[in-house]
TrEMBL record:
Record carries keyword Lipoprotein: no
Gene behind this protein: queG
Alphabetical UniProt keywords: 4Fe-4S, Cobalamin, Cobalt, Cytoplasm, Iron, Iron-sulfur, Metal-binding, Oxidoreductase, Queuosine biosynthesis, tRNA processing
Start and end residues of each 4Fe-4S ferredoxin-type domain: 179-208
Species of origin: Sphingobium xenophagum
SUPFAM superfamilies: alpha-helical ferredoxin
Binding site for cob(II)alamin: R59, D134, L158, L169, S216, C241, D242
Pathway membership, UniProt: tRNA modification; tRNA-queuosine biosynthesis
Official protein name in the record: Epoxyqueuosine reductase
Domain of life of the source: Bacteria
Residues annotated to bind tRNA: K223
Entry binding sites for [4Fe-4S] cluster 1: C188, C191, C194, C248
Length: 346
């Protein structure tokens, strides 16, 4: 009987740890990444995410971060939703939270599984390695395409033929020379569904996102007053945006049954009332979003976003909550509340 290879056993072990897909790429699998990153940064598309520019050399290639890396194990963990991610689009008094943030913090879940897989690999064949989940200068999406998990769609996110757009990515850099899988080719064709779905026109061209216009960036990364011309497009989105992902026709192959159960949405985050979010203090915020990736943006940013959503709602019943925020200690929150009151009076 033929003996299974280390690579085959690795993929079996990854599946047992909750990963939907595991593939291997050589460390030089994404040779164009550094140049594409530099062009994107030079255009200012990263907004005020200065950390991307500061560590661009390390981010440009795996060897730039760790010269000893020879293989990259790329893994995807599914969070395919069991319901329509755009279901609240026409419910203006409720807040829309991106599907990925309604369950447990993916950083914790994916990293725990990565570490377990890394321990297993070292037991099988000793060698130095490093694990990464979204917090290090790693070009996960180009490497995932180089490993064959999927391809970077025109919305710049990874698309899998089996799991659609709903994958969290993790990486294991190893000094082992593992047999690589074949890279995936682009299957977008002439489709532009993701581009036309964007409510703030954040795509200056296919495959390029301008973070400064992206609702995910504005609601999560950006700390200042959100530009007025982009506020209407935010609608009732208060953390992230699923529109370009949800529009992708490849999602018809995504199976919610394959999703890791840790990412099942918490009932209180599925459709929270804007009135309740406007009333959050620091302690209430920390309690409500404990164990959620939302916790990292802090109360002020979340309430700022809720105030803008309230202004977009047309619901005069929210004025009381907004008026209580006009004197907020955070001037960005206070400005958003005043703007929203003006919109509701108009």
């Amino acid at each position: 009987m033929q003996t299974e290879t280390l690579e085959e056993r690795l993929k079996v072990q990854a599946a047992q740890l909750g990963f939907a897909i595991c593939r291997i790429a050589p460390a030089d699998a994404a040779p164009q990444s550094a140049e594409r990153l530099r062009q994107w940064l030079d255009a200012g598309h990263h907004g005020d995410m200065l950390w991307m520019e500061e560590r661009a050399e390390q981010r440009g290639s795996p060897q730039g971060l760790w010269p000893d890396v020879r293989s990259v194990i790329m893994l995807g963990m599914s969070y395919a939703p069991g319901r329509d991610p755009l279901a609240l689009a026409d419910v203006p008094d409720r807040a829309r939270i991106s599907v990925y943030a309604q369950g447990k913090d993916y950083h914790d879940v994916v990293k725990k599984a990565l570490k377990a897989l890394a321990r297993w690999l070292v037991d099988q064949q000793p060698g130095a390695l490093k694990v990464f989940v979204d917090t290090a200068p790693v070009m996960e999406k180009p490497l995932a395409q180089g490993a064959g998990l999927g391809w970077q769609g025109k919305h710049s996110n990874l698309v899998s033929r089996d799991h659609g757009s709903w994958l969290f990515l993790g990486a294991i850099y190893t000094e082992l020379a593992l047999a690589p899988d074949s890279a995936e080719r682009d299957h977008c064709g002439s489709c532009t569904a993701c581009l036309t779905a964007c409510p703030t026109d954040a795509f200056p061209s296919p495959y390029v996102v301008d973070a400064r216009r992206c609702i995910s960036y504005l609601t999560i990364e950006y700390k200042g007053p959100i530009p007025h011309d982009l506020r209407a497009g935010m609608g009732n989105r208060i953390y992230g945006c699923d529109d370009c992902l949800a529009a992708c026709p490849w999602n018809k192959f995504a199976d919610a049954a394959a999703a890791n159960r840790a990412f099942l949405g918490r009932a209180e985050l599925a459709a929270p009332e804007l009135a309740d979010l406007l009333a959050l203090g620091d302690a209430d915020f920390r309690e409500l979003f404990s164990g959620s990736p939302i916790k990292r943006i802090g109360r002020n940013r979340l309430v700022r976003n809720a105030a803008i959503a309230a202004g977009n709602s047309g619901d005069a019943r929210l004025r009381g909550g907004l008026e209580a925020l006009v004197g907020d200690d955070d001037p960005v929150v206070a400005e958003a509340a005043a703007w929203a009151i003006g919109k509701l009076r108009a």
